[in-house]
Structures
1.
Amino acid sequence: MAEGEFAFIRRHLRPLAAHEPAALGLEDDAAVLAPTPGHEIVLTKDAIVAGVHFLADDPAETVAQKLLRVNLSDLAAMGARPIGHLLVFARPAALAEAWIEGFCRGLAADQATYGIGLLGGDTVSTPGPLTLSLTAIGDLPAGSALRRSGARAGDDLWVSGTLGDGALGLRVLTGELAVPPEAAAVLIERYRVPAPRVALGPALRGLATAAIDVSDGLLADLGHVLEASAVGAEVAAAALPLSDAAIGLAGAEDAALTGGDDYELLFTVPADQRNAVDELGRELALRLTRIGCITTERALRVRGADGREITSPRRGWQHF
Amino acid sequence: MAEGEFAFIRRHLRPLAAHEPAALGLEDDAAVLAPTPGHEIVLTKDAIVAGVHFLADDPAETVAQKLLRVNLSDLAAMGARPIGHLLVFARPAALAEAWIEGFCRGLAADQATYGIGLLGGDTVSTPGPLTLSLTAIGDLPAGSALRRSGARAGDDLWVSGTLGDGALGLRVLTGELAVPPEAAAVLIERYRVPAPRVALGPALRGLATAAIDVSDGLLADLGHVLEASAVGAEVAAAALPLSDAAIGLAGAEDAALTGGDDYELLFTVPADQRNAVDELGRELALRLTRIGCITTERALRVRGADGREITSPRRGWQHF
């Protein structure tokens, strides 16, 4: 490790690990984590590349927040509670100090929000674009993980929050979509700083039969559940929850069906537990919407308000 | 996630996770790991970048092996037993399919060697060079982790295997050093495919007072131990273990002192346990060499055969 890398770790990463005994002050070769007895450890790992996964002029703070939050969303989809994370920076020489400081500020704020810390971190240099890789660690009681494979015919299909905002926000940022300033701010914020459903995920253990987070788009992610569970589904387009900012916008329904970057939870629950889900939504003050049901026929059908099937030229949801 | 990424995971990564229940077939959002009761989880994370950490014409198989092995070396330095790993590929579009296949072949071979599997994996595209990030997971009995901070004055200083081969191998590869073909093959192999001390590390729990792996160079890594332990050390240059391939080469002693890429374990043991270390070396059929001792004076001194201190213009070991 080059001398500059030690300085980087000391200066930028060590403060992020200050309150984490497992991080050993980032001074040792690895982090040491004491699991809660009777719990399992849940691990997920993602990388983002400048110019591919975030825009050059995205604020550094929100890049950090989104990187952490998409991983927390993966943990939530399994029903896990977040514990901490490890971070690797692959840094181009030209990366401004101010950008790194903004990134670490955003990360510190989110670590406080979610009650977690940095357990391990490293940095390497790269002649390519800034590349960030994060491993998130969570836990849950042994045997309670939510899987994609548990959906059964007759289950209700639910989704948290609202759909399509992230994809619409990206279209506003790239200039493809013009909307009034207030709506623009809401949609851009949803794209840049998604809200992982860290309270909902663990609350669904023992209630949901399957869960996934909506990162690739509702239909694509639902397709993964259907494939893993060997079932089909019907979705009522009119039931899709849209935000006030999205309602009435051109392409809003399409964004809700196929746009990515929502980071809401899509989950299935036996139909006799409908009241329990409604109760949970009230408890968490979180909109939970029943958007369809699981079917035995292995197809994914979306029906319009008139009951007729809507077909889409987009790959990956009509046939999977 | 783009469709090509699913195909990549299905084709290349899923076979690497085939025997790992914790990986859930790479079908879910995260891996779920059941810790051994009474054990702690050890986590380490590294990234490598094409053109920076490996050479463009390094065989893909050995790139995979080195990436995994340097992380296993970090686990060994903590005294941990490896359990599994997570891998992220940031792939340029031009990366040849044959290269990826070679990489996965090398990884599969090493997974078999070390009895571990892939627990989670992902891929993203990048306009920059191939960047690989690996998180290794291990475990050890609670409270038994080897730290850098436990060295005490009077402890013996030990090192496993031989030193300097990795750095000499790199110099052979870059054409800076000409050696007979047989020695060249040995040194290059040591650079490309280091041997992490996965049996030694766990065996040192309860015996060593501090440990680190030699990745940055003996003196730099010893400096980390001395700093963390608030002590100093004396090293006898004549005691440094050199391989038959390295003995007599120009710069061999310097490579042993300051070259990186050895991935041997450097550790401290109370002087009254000398026989136990010798016995352990015999048991593991691994050369373990006493190269000096820990001192109260917070300085790192290297003495030649005549007892006189050797000074070096290199930064980072005379003063730390």
Note: The CA atoms of residues 92 and 127 of chain B lie 6 Å apart.
2.
Amino acid sequence: MEKLTLNAVGKLIPERINNEAVIPFKGVGKYKPTGRKYAPKISSNTDFPLDGNKQVSDLKTALTKAGLKDGMTISSHHHFRNGDLIMNQVFDIAKEMGIKDLRWFPSASFPCHAHLIPYLEDGTINRIEGSMNGALGKFTSEGKMKGTAILRSHGGRYTAIQDGEVKIDIAIIVAGTADNFGNANGVNGASASGLLGFALGDSQYADKVIVLTDNMVEFPCIPWQIQGNYVDYTVKVDKVGEPEKIISGTTKITKSPDRLLLAEMTAKFCDQADIIKDGFSFQTGAGGTSLAVSKYFGDIMRERGIKARFARGGSNEYLVNMLQEGLIEYILDGQTFDLEGVRSMRENSNHVWTSPFTSYNYHGKGNFAGKVDVVILGATEVDVNFNANVVTHSDGLLLHGIGGWQNCLFSKTVILPIPLFRNRNPVILDEVTTIVGPGELIDVIITERGIAINPLRKDLIEKLKDSDLPIKTIQELKEEAEKICGVPEKPEFTDNIIAAIKWVDGTIIDVVRQLKK
Amino acid sequence: MEKLTLNAVGKLIPERINNEAVIPFKGVGKYKPTGRKYAPKISSNTDFPLDGNKQVSDLKTALTKAGLKDGMTISSHHHFRNGDLIMNQVFDIAKEMGIKDLRWFPSASFPCHAHLIPYLEDGTINRIEGSMNGALGKFTSEGKMKGTAILRSHGGRYTAIQDGEVKIDIAIIVAGTADNFGNANGVNGASASGLLGFALGDSQYADKVIVLTDNMVEFPCIPWQIQGNYVDYTVKVDKVGEPEKIISGTTKITKSPDRLLLAEMTAKFCDQADIIKDGFSFQTGAGGTSLAVSKYFGDIMRERGIKARFARGGSNEYLVNMLQEGLIEYILDGQTFDLEGVRSMRENSNHVWTSPFTSYNYHGKGNFAGKVDVVILGATEVDVNFNANVVTHSDGLLLHGIGGWQNCLFSKTVILPIPLFRNRNPVILDEVTTIVGPGELIDVIITERGIAINPLRKDLIEKLKDSDLPIKTIQELKEEAEKICGVPEKPEFTDNIIAAIKWVDGTIIDVVRQLKK
């Protein structure tokens, strides 16, 4: 059996994954890269049409011209989320061409991609390196994928591309609007899905770049969220995606009294911690609880006549309304979670599209995360050391991606409002099934039965010392949960590593093992 | 004496310049780069402030922290044109610190930089690689610069950075507005000068990047034409530049009957060549004649009820008016030539900022130049093979830069409206003093006494065969000029090469020699 090394959060990490050497997590800020960014080949205009028209007849032609062959890495982005119509076609074509052993490198995959399971079984696709939501995660958890999955945060994915850790052979970029030169955006057209930021690194560093659209306009396609100067081929198709399926989370503020309580406690905590003041910044999210937190933030701001300098999206109707009302000066958006978000991004120049490069790249000269005053995140599990899990459920199944979650941990204050238990499973444990975020970066756990502040945040403990909120230790919260639900049973795993969880710096913070039947 | 090689336009090129091997021009589209783009060092957020605040107290501190030392390459951009207030200070500081042998790599230099002549004399600055307008050009022509000047087009400069031909140690970026993280733009603030596109490559590839502004706003500075994720230090100064000095060319349509005639002939030629039609695109420029051409284009469009899909800027009041009137759908702008251009770029989302990467990079996957239907350019001299000169005068003095001129030659039709003679010097010669653009890319020469179409453009000759315009051969035009002015005397040069002229692909198309006293 392979040699395993203990990493800085006490997890056993193999020396190699997918036959490549990996680096175990060394602690936050402890691993520094050496060397230089990945250097793509220098192109020459002489190899491209003089008039700039790069349009080819169809996707198969583009893939063929791009030199699709065994063992290549195909990247894609997930702005259409569960409404993507292209990636299944890409691998249908690969299968038809008899191509084997591909690495799929999406920024995320969704239930709609369950179509690809036969290709994972027959070896057309060796493995997925990217967030897996739903069926593909279950398939992987059952040990059925040939290669080992690698999960990266949105920022970690950009970093891996920039650093040359992942070399993309062919990038597939799917856009609401494009011109035949390859300039493209996600804000215009019948299939507008918002922005194309997750594909930015792919466009910059991939060997070949293919842009598909169902709305091919005359040059120039404005705005050019993707620049045609990086693009090799353009393709017009009938329909690129179903934008109505980009919705994430619930689209309405929760009506559950428990969740409303969580949201109210979160807003109250932020208020008592002096976070909500004129010019502050926040990131909440798109779940029902998060929407409620935004609502309570709005109530407080309105009452005091203050406004936020910016909010980080995932945007949706609620955040857009706050922007329009003037409660927020800017939305810095990484992903639109509903069509109101798309419309606002198209029409309002204060609704700004970002990318994992600007927002989250850890191997840059800083990123935007550290500029955010407070970020409200979720978790499937938290442990008594504040380590948190977002990828596996308490039954051990790998069902979620990391998204921007890890990257956001570098914000000034990180709060996780979570229920104390779900389906009688305590959420606060001695050890989380998978460590995705190290506890030192997680400041506050808010449950319906009490709030735990990370002992490292002495400033917050001091500020809240006379609070009427139920401040407790995390140990107390855990015991309270166990009093109600009992001590939870742990899922049982085999030794087989089915997925690796990367930290933002490219090191391995944890692995996920195959579930025992 | 050094060995010289004949290049593809018959010019003798040395093997080495500034002690680096150079490649002689091989013909349009004949030289293809191998290898990979320049790969900057991978940074780590751990080396930058957690809260993203990179502001230091002053320029000298920033330069010191950036490690300024002998032999470094300092880059700058010329959006303030003759109103730049920073670069003289940079070299004042270098002089004060006793630094020697710097390479200054500006996108262009202007008369205001004559201040630097003592530093060129005392060896603080070894040489300038960038367009020199005025006194610095004269200084160079007199053989007084220690190193050899290298002149590149705007696109060639980006390409040189991207390809690693020029490695920038410290990039100086001067912005109308910025935040302390380093996001910056040129559209807002009292010193708004338009855009920052010429500094894009510098920001992406330089080892250290310093952003200066006199309008430091709270994060986020929107739009971020320069992304703070590339920036090392930010500095607030009292005043970055004098935007009222960005004016280029005349600001009014010419009243000279000769020039108006040239402009009218140009518009008429374009019309008869079927170039002016609904959805066409054009680039004129900012001189008095060019403004008149735009005006005549506007008259034709208005009369026919058609509009242009886009115009390429240098923008100014005239182009902005056409945009506002709806005669042009988009301005794709590389440089604002007056404050109306700045205002329009700030307020009108159809007035789009570009960069030499999007517009002009020849070592990319195409660029925008080939998308432009017709471009109207100037020249100091043209020869009977349609080769043209824009950098030296007929007296042999190097007084101008290349700008985007070479890059624009890849547009679909290139027209040079020029007077047949200037100050009794014929403009059409047997041989130009310096070849900056190869004749095969120059389609039409329009003079007040006749129009010459390049024999390569059989399509244009055919279209104009029944024209009432005075179509002649270029030989006829030359003879006509000589009949009036006599055969011109040539300037006399020593053997000393004082400047090299790069073609867009990085090869040397010509050199400029020191003038004999």
Note: Residues 288-304 of chain B form the longest helix (17 residues).
3.
Amino acid sequence: MLTMADGLKIGIVGATGAVGQELLSLFDQRSTQISELRLMSGPRSAGSTISFRGEDLTVALAAADQFDGLDVVFFSAGAGVSKSLASAAVDAGALVVDNSSAFRMDEGVPLVIPEINWSVAGEQKIIANPNCSTIILLMAIAPLRSLGKIKRIIASTYQSVSGAGAIAMQELIDQTRVVLDGGEAVPESFGHQCAFNVFSHDSDVDGNGFNVEEQKMFEETRKILEDDEIGLSVTCVRVPVLRAHSEAILVEFEGDAPSVEEARRVLSQADGVRIVDDREANHFPMPIESGGEDDVFVGRIRKDAASSNGLWLFASGDQLRKGAALNALQIAERAFS
Amino acid sequence: MLTMADGLKIGIVGATGAVGQELLSLFDQRSTQISELRLMSGPRSAGSTISFRGEDLTVALAAADQFDGLDVVFFSAGAGVSKSLASAAVDAGALVVDNSSAFRMDEGVPLVIPEINWSVAGEQKIIANPNCSTIILLMAIAPLRSLGKIKRIIASTYQSVSGAGAIAMQELIDQTRVVLDGGEAVPESFGHQCAFNVFSHDSDVDGNGFNVEEQKMFEETRKILEDDEIGLSVTCVRVPVLRAHSEAILVEFEGDAPSVEEARRVLSQADGVRIVDDREANHFPMPIESGGEDDVFVGRIRKDAASSNGLWLFASGDQLRKGAALNALQIAERAFS
């Protein structure tokens, strides 16, 4: 069987976006063996050139006839593009790793965080990458299941602007300059000013008052943990941070919460988790430190003061890496191992 | 009895700080009648000049012999200064409104948010102003008690840098410029970079893992609501915002949570609360809008998805106004009404 070491034929749909660019940087960092790299995008960026390993590659217009011969195709160009093109990639014989929300809740499509539920991937030809906030939450939470059954998770997020793409990251930078210079912010990527502000997540709000990001975290958590009873109660908020999401998380167990020491031990042994929990130095997970890193940082581990079954955590992870491109690449690495 | 309309003799200890400056601006905005204004500070700012209503006032060094004849003295120069000088102000016959943490938990000292518990103020000569995060939390929560008994409050904060004073606000501005220009941030007011970052609140962390800010919110909430059984479970976090704190709040009732409509009705009738809760426009409380305003903004009112007794809110209020100077001035206004 073909493995990563043989050098894969890789396609990226959405190569010029923030996640696509992060994938290319991860290929270098992880010395991914590539025998062919086909970069694709929508009409706006098609025709542009991206330099990779000394070669200038032209970005092709993503289309159904572009997948012939590819082993794996990473989709990160939005749910619409995935829905219209993923089946063509599968028909061409490729494994599709889809970073959009298009197939996440489809019954036949595994939703995978390799450290947590690789076993469900099977021989499926489409594997979905969970939402970034879900990945960062579950990387911090899932290892704790060995210490007791989790009944409910209550979380508030501090989400970076990178979830809205490279344009939003540039907008935070440009808009911050404008505001510092006394000018007026003109929001484009979001409905509101992002510089020096905090606002409710920029996804549609349903009749019950929850936005789509919060609903995704709820549904995806249940699917990944294979637990239809687990409660999830979350508020998703954007903060003026470039590329790492943070989350304040209260985990409620069926019985008494594990001790801080037990939680720390289990988390310190978990792949992809780094403990940052120095109470004396007041040093806990921060986006300026988790940004650009592969691990999800976890700290502020403490027993809830108002219940016997609660354990608080604070997590921070790079939205573009473990929250998107890294998790997708890890899926491909396992599939071709 | 002396009333506000007679023109009070007012002292401010900490006149050059962020809260002191805010008080002066509120005097103008509220047309406070003042027959004498005595500005005081620590040695660093003593001797400086502040212009107020066309007069240049010299800031005196705060000392025990500076309070003669004053009707009210506002203290906002830290707990140490309050502890050493408040009794001298009381001895001189003044009402002390203390914005520090010095006396908040003293049994004989009322801890007052006028809209919530003015009745406890009595004839006391020292009245303590609660912590800013407590005030903003309780302004959003207290009105809901008419709809059912509150059992527990779970909150995560998004706190502005102004809580650390005017210097910290300038530091966020200067540091943001440095980072935008590719330089390295040199944190001074906080242990960590504040520009484009999020970090656990900069107060000491105890053996149970809670920081002092979280403990304050816990203790002060119980004192103000006069409920020793109410649970409070909170994570306090700083965000790169200048002057308004925001909080994601899950209120748990003894019985079923009230409906969204009931909560909205009660909150819309509450003094000092403004509802900002437009789901369709995705417009909810934001620090760039609550900053500079007197009201605490409340929105994202929705029933918890994972319990029958939970109601979510998102609140945002100006840390320097209702969180500090405005609440203190309102206390004086009621005392001399």
Note: Chain B touches chain A through 60 residues (CB under 8 Å).
